[in-house]
Please model this.
Amino acid sequence: MNEIRAPWAQDESESRGRRYPEQEHPYRPVFARDRDRIIHCRAFRRLEYKTQVFVNHEGDHYRTRLTHSIEVAQIARTVARALGLNQELTESLALSHDLGHTPFGHLGEEVLDPVMAANGGFSHNRQGLRIIEVLERRYPDFPGLNLSWEVREGVVKHSGMPSLASFPEASEYEPSISPPLEAQMLDLVDEIAYNHHDVDDGLESGLLEPSTLVEEIPLFGEPFRAASKQSPAQGPRMWVKMALRSMINALVSDLVETTRVGIERLGLSSLADVRAQAEWQVRLSDEMAARNRSLKDFLKSSLYRHPRISETRQFYATVLGDLFSVYNSRPENMPQRFRARREHESMARAVCDYIAGMTDRFALEEHRRLCGGPGPEVTPAVTRP
Model:
């Protein structure tokens, strides 16, 4: 079934194309090829073993960066379909949005940014662009994945308009102009996905208690109580699943309806109209945004800063700091393709690229090999700040 596109959607026919000209495919549009290139790249596969909240060895059922990216893509496609947006562009952006993440979640960014201060710093969004532009090597005629301008723009802008001081590469992507709605939705859709599954994983781990969530978080508590009345024989485990489904449906539905009303109120009738707006148009209603903030604050205080998680952050920070020092002083421990980058970039950037691309497991194995660390059998998790 063909997509029914709204006039404000990004159409393939309006793409600015690729950095290195290629003959387009006879039956795969430009953004579909971008999506497929992302799925087939090594950086995407490595997300399977990168921390979302709980490190990989803690259990088979916790989310990883890979499963998180898939969940974001599914929600994003739902929103795109409901608003008449380009689903393949949306999916490309959703699947690529976390490519630049380090091992051990956001902690890796906290460690690498200060040690890279003299060499341009580090951010996972900027690293994501670097991966698709430079570091992936799958084609003989150009570096990177040679994705379309629109996907690269979305990678640059999906978390907000970038600062050229900290992200100079963004100057190519018209940083003063709003991106299309397909990119504008990504940060909110990302948030909806991780709020949902972090509650699920937090309850599964035992670090969160259902009763506390029910009492303190209406976004979860109201559907949980409704589920207990609707299916009293099922018990709390099933009520949690029912509440989580209701929670994510409420957030996504509100986002779609609030955005649609805003588009109609402004009379947007083209992609140019979208780009001309100073304020981004994809949003939650004030009431739902307040409920969502309450959930985010709860997760920050009760899960992300849980003693079991906090007590291990220093260990993982030490792992990354040790690796950065060792590779800088003994670059022969890195693969040749990273050592070769010293010819046109700093040693620190080559080391940073190597460490940022590691999985949790590989970083721990390298730390054990080079520094005598305990390896990947350590417990528990590291998470977003």
